[in-house]
Amino acid sequence: MHIVGFDPGGENAFGWAVLSGTGHDLSLVASGTCTGAPAALSAARAATSIAPIAFGTDAPLFWVQAGDRKADETVRKMVCAAGGKSGTVSHVNSLRGACLVQGVLVTRLAAELCPSAMITEAHPKALLAASLAARDFASRIVRPVSTKHERDAALAAYTAFALATQTDGWHDLAATEQSPFFPGGTRVAYWFPKSRT
């Protein structure tokens, strides 16, 4: 099984990663950085001949009509309980354009390319604060990746793997929102651990 993760950013700062395997055997197939959603998706697809079963993107993939997203409030509380800072989980209105726009674009392109693939929003930095298993995974892939953008893309793919396998102890935070808006044109999940481990 192959899973792809993205960490949208600006010029030469758009991370992508492809993971393969099952359970604890999950490994990094390839990763890199580039500029823009089309280049990231193209590079990830070139790294594997197998169609991905899931995609994860480190960017807000759904919005709410007013106020803060319940998902962000939940994750922010978990990060703070782990000793992190509330600013780790920013309000959607305070994020950089590259993260917002490129995240939606790469998700839309991925959904068009692989319509049967599952898609989830991911938050690698918050995941590292909340999940021992994610920290263990990140420590295993630190040497093969050369940038934090690639690491965060790999963690986004790790989140997509949790969605694809319906990992115990995780849930869909997007399901907690009332009338979310999906700017990419397709419904996505926000798979995240239910509690800090």
Largest sheet: 7 strands, mixed
Shape descriptor reads: globular
SSE run? EEEHEHHEHHHEE
Number of strands: 7
Outline the low-pLDDT stretches.
none
How many angstroms does the end-to-end distance come to? Answer: 26 Å
Q: What is the subunit arrangement here?
A: single chain
Structural class: alpha/beta
Order of neighbouring strands in the sheet with most strands:
3-2-1-4-5-7-6
pLDDT averaged over residues: 91
The helix count comes to 6
Task: Supply database-style keywords.
globular, seven-stranded mixed β-sheet, 197 residues, 6 helices, alpha/beta
Structure description:
By secondary structure, this protein is α/β, with parallel strands linked by helices. It has helices spanning 37-46, 70-81, 97-113, 124-130, 132-141, 148-164; strands at residues 2-7, 14-20, 27-34, 54-57, 118-121, 170-172, 189-193. It has a seven-stranded mixed sheet with strand order 3-2-1-4-5-7-6. A hairpin with a 6-residue loop joins strand 2 and strand 3 (27-34). Helix 1 (37-46) packs across helix 3, helix 2 crosses helix 4 (124-130) and helix 4 crosses helix 5 (132-141). The chain is globular, with a radius of gyration of 15 Å. The two termini are 26 Å apart. The mean pLDDT is 91.
